[in-house]
Amino acid sequence: MSRLTRLLDRFPLPRRLFPSPAPARPTPAPHIARRPPTALTGTDLVRSFGSGENQTYALNGVSVEFRQREVNLLMGPSGSGKSTLLAVLSGLLRPGGGSVAALGRDVWRMGEDEMERFRLRHCSYIFQGYNLFPALTAREQLEIVLKWGEGCPSREARKRADHVLGQLGLAAKSHLRPAELSGGEKQRVAIGRALVKNPTFVFADEPTAALDWENGRQVMRLLAENARERGAMVLVVTHDPRLVPLADRVFELTDGRLTRDGRADATPPPARKGPRLHLQLPQAATA
Questions:
Q1: Range in 131-135, 159-163, 211-215, 250-254 the model is least confident about
Q2: CATH number of the CATH domain containing 145
Q3: Which of 4, 153, 174, 255 is the most exposed place for a label (fewest CB within 10 A)?
């Protein structure tokens, strides 16, 4: 044994002079964009009217799938089955065949009371004719949804209703009844009523048909914000091809059959105009 070896054995050098090599860092996995989870599906849906030689099919074996955080357009010629499909998927019209699954539950196997609770808790509807209560003010149209559907205390319901109406540009008209509002204002009240409870599903039947283009585009932007910011699934029946660039997916029916199921033709533009929605989440009532 050499003299140097004996000295090293007797007086070992500090470890910091000979650091161990750093462990190799794992290569990060490539980022993979995930599709939003499925929220609603319809499978082999059938709905017919009449019987025998007079029987016609509004839906003939339609299967569709909708995801959270997406705006979907349902298009097609008059009589193609669009409104029927919307009603079947939203729990308003029982299909003659097939099934509807929402949030992992078979919608049409629910009992009547369970179905009503499900609609109150998760679904909102926007109708072409507004369907506002003539005797109620704009604020009361929203408050009644919260009081009846959620059992929300009066003070909290008023606060949330005023918040949404303010975001819709209707703060100064919250005390007016439908007869005192313009068509566009009534439509915005109807949209506010649909969105005030932060629904999981928004079903809209021709919500822009009575509006000019600028107001119709604003309606779609408000619905899109609700989908993006609150995770809702929005399904809109429309004849207007100008709405296609504002949607994520477009479905088309012809004679009760699905003839298109895919991405919209254009990327939706950012919502830069019109009031932005920042809806408040429901809060537990305090004693």
A1: 211-215
A2: 3.40.50.300
A3: 4
Residues ≥6 apart with Cβ < 8 Å to 157: 142, 143, 146, 147
Q: Cβ-count burial of 144 within 10 angstroms (0-12 exposed, 13-18 middle, 19+ buried)?
A: middle
Instruction: Indicate yes or no: pTM above 0.85.
Output: no
8 in any annotated domain: no
Domain coverage including residue 153: 38-263
Top-confidence residue, 89 or 229: 89
CA distance 120 to 114: 10
Count Cβ neighbours within 10 Å for each residue of 209-247 and write b for 16 or more, e otherwise. eebeeebbbbbbbbbbbbbbebebbbbbbbebeebeebb
Q: Which two tokens stand for residue 42?
A: 């319809």
In total, how many domains does the chain have?
1
Residue 165 near residue 192 (C-beta atoms within 8 A): yes
